[in-house]
Amino acid sequence: MIEVYYAEDDETIGKSVKEYLEQQNCKVTVFDRIADVKKALIGHLPTIVLLDWNMPDGQGSELCLWIRERWITLPIVYLTVRGDSHDIVTGFQNGADDYVVKPFDLAVLYSRILALLRRTEGVTHTKLFCDDLMLDKEKTAVYNGQKEIVVSQPEYRILLILMENKGKTITRNQLLEQVWDRSGNYVNDNTLTVTMKRLREKLNHPACLKTIRSFGYRMEDTQ
């Protein structure tokens, strides 16, 4: 099911888009304030975000930039009231993937959503996110914001396991087995402690990487 977050302060438009997309088996949540969209995104990421250009508490371009600083691959479509080249250019500069000009045919909007998701299919599966951290599995690289962080192979494996299981607590024994024992290298428990300490320091002690005392570790979004 396609899950849509839609920032739209016009109740009539928001209702019609929601009703139509839900008929197409989408799940749609409409927000009339940018602040509410941010709060929802921090708790859960949808499949795609639709952004109205003008909102009561700001512009869609501002929200788009905020999203892109945190979730690079989340698909975003602008809904602008006119084919204003300035709006469109600004939107793409701030990270939008596509735009639809109001008034629009609902079937056209839905087809554009499907087309965008086809283009981006698989991209999100190669990139894992937690707060400002991003792990790119295709490049075998770790980023804190826009800065790439150089990590060792064990540090990368630890972060990969935790981010692939975001929200779940992974025990110390599980990490020891999956990071070291699979290679036939026996290590003691202190090796994990030291490796985790170095990883935290390299990542500037992120709040999203939590220690569950006497048990293990967990990654979870805090922003």
Give a description of the structure:
The chain contains 8 helices and 14 strands. It is elongated. β1, α1 and β2 form a beta-alpha-beta unit. 40% of the residues lie in helices and 25% in strands. It has 223 residues and is α/β, with parallel strands linked by helices. The chain starts with a strand and ends with a strand. The longest helix is centred in the middle third of the chain and has 15 residues. The mean pLDDT is 86. It has a 5-stranded parallel β-sheet with strand order 2-1-3-6-7, sandwiched between helices. The chain folds into 2 domains: 120 residues, 3-Layer(aba) Sandwich (Rossmann fold), CATH 3.40.50; 94 residues, Winged helix-like DNA-binding domain superfamily/Winged helix DNA-binding domain (Arc Repressor Mutant, subunit A, Orthogonal Bundle), CATH 1.10.10.10.
What key phrases describe this protein's structure?
223 residues; alpha/beta; Rossmann fold; Arc Repressor Mutant, subunit A; 2 domains; 4-stranded antiparallel β-sheet; 8 helices; 40% helix; elongated; transcription cis-regulatory region binding; Stage 0 sporulation protein A homolog
